[in-house]
């Protein structure tokens, strides 16, 4: 394993990347798959192999110096095409290395007949986090304030059992996505109404809503920032005061996705930023270990 600590000696950090996507590509809707394939270019073949073979992913993690990854499942039958079956794919995939591959599940509050039951099934199967993707589910993160009761059911249950919820913020390029639901301000309601819920704000509202994101992160103690999807070089521009929220920042890449070719270059770019050693280590190692022991 690489020594993540670019400064020199000492044991390598146990890096957790809280946000990667290994998906059942065949389940994606055709227009989504075509967009994805076109944007991934000659890496598409490799991606197909990875989806079939957790050992190949573990090889990449070893080579890239990544100890653990969060396998994010974006269930959204209406936009991406992934149904509850995608959860079974992720959970099965993660069984290849339970301590290193952390399955995150999804429940679509808009189309699922019994959200509570669907979530309890996933909890029993061992998911470590619930993913809510407002632009792909086509509902705001606080849509329970306007009648989408299933969303409140999900948040309440996660709060009860101590399971974090990851909420996508920022835009999405996939056909059918409604990026207006990517505004992190809607997390304000969620954090107020579910005060014990741990909320992971994916992507920090990039690229349009990073000021709103920072406000929410400072205002609410249990809202964490997942840096995935932000080109690491641009972190100082989007979050010039990142050090102020250092105990709540989580490392993530969103690999493999358009623009993110592999995990290691992002790690190197992050380590090269003018941030304190403590912030870098907290982000990559100790914060994710606190949230996901
Ligand atoms: Zn993602």
Give a brief outline of the structure:
The protein is α/β, with parallel strands linked by helices.
Features:
8 strands, binds zinc ion, 293 residues, eight-stranded parallel sheet, 11% strand, alpha/beta
Any overview of this molecule?
With 293 residues, the chain is an alpha/beta fold. Helices cover 39% and strands 11% of the residues. The chain is built from twelve helices and eight strands. The protein has an eight-stranded parallel β-sheet. β3, α5 and β4 (129-132) form a beta-alpha-beta unit. It is globular, with a radius of gyration of 18 Å. It starts with 15 loop residues before the first strand and ends with a helix. The structure holds zinc ion.
CA gyration radius, whole angstroms: 18 Å
Global structural class: alpha/beta
Order of helices and strands: EHHHEHEHEHHEHEHEHEHH
Distance between the termini: 21 Å
The percentage helix is: 25-40%
Q: Tell me how many strands there are.
A: 8
Low-confidence segments, given as residue ranges, are none
Query: Which band does the percent of strand residues land in?
Result: 5-15%
> Ligands in the structure?
zinc ion
Mean pLDDT: 94
Total of DSSP H or I helical runs spanning 4+ residues: 12
> How would you describe the shape?
globular
User: What composes the largest sheet?
Assistant: 8 strands, parallel
Strand order of the largest sheet: 1-2-3-4-5-6-7-8
């Amino acid at each position: 394993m690489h020594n993540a600590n670019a400064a020199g000696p000492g044991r390598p950090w146990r890096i957790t990347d809280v946000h990667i996507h290994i998906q059942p590509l065949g389940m994606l809707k055709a227009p989504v798959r075509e967009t994805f394939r076109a944007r991934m270019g000659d890496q598409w073949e490799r991606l197909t192999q990875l989806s079939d073979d957790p050992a190949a992913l573990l090889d990449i993690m070893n080579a890239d110096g990544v100890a653990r990854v969060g396998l994010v499942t974006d269930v959204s039958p209406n936009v991406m095409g992934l149904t509850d079956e995608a959860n079974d794919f992720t959970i099965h995939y993660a069984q290849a290395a339970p301590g290193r591959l952390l399955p995150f599940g999804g429940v679509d509050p808009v189309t699922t007949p019994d959200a509570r039951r669907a979530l309890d099934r996933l909890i029993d199967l061992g998911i470590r986090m619930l993913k809510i993707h407002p632009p792909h589910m086509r509902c705001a993160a606080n849509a329970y304030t306007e009648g989408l009761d299933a969303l409140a059911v999900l948040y309440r249950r996660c709060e009860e059992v101590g399971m974090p919820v990851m909420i996508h913020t920022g835009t999405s390029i996939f056909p059918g996505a409604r990026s207006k639901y990517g505004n992190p301000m809607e997390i304000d309601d969620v954090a107020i109404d579910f005060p014990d819920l741990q909320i992971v704000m994916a992507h920090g509202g990039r690229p349009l809503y990073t000021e709103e994101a920072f406000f929410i992160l400072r205002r609410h103690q249990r809202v964490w920032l997942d840096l995935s999807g932000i080109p690491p070089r641009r972190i100082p521009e989007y979050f010039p005061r990142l050090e102020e929220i250092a105990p709540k920042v989580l490392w993530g890449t969103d690999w493999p996705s358009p623009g993110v070719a592999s995990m290691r270059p992002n790690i190197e770019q992050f380590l090269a930023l003018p941030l304190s050693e403590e912030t870098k280590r907290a982000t990559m190692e100790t914060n994710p270990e606190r949230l996901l022991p």
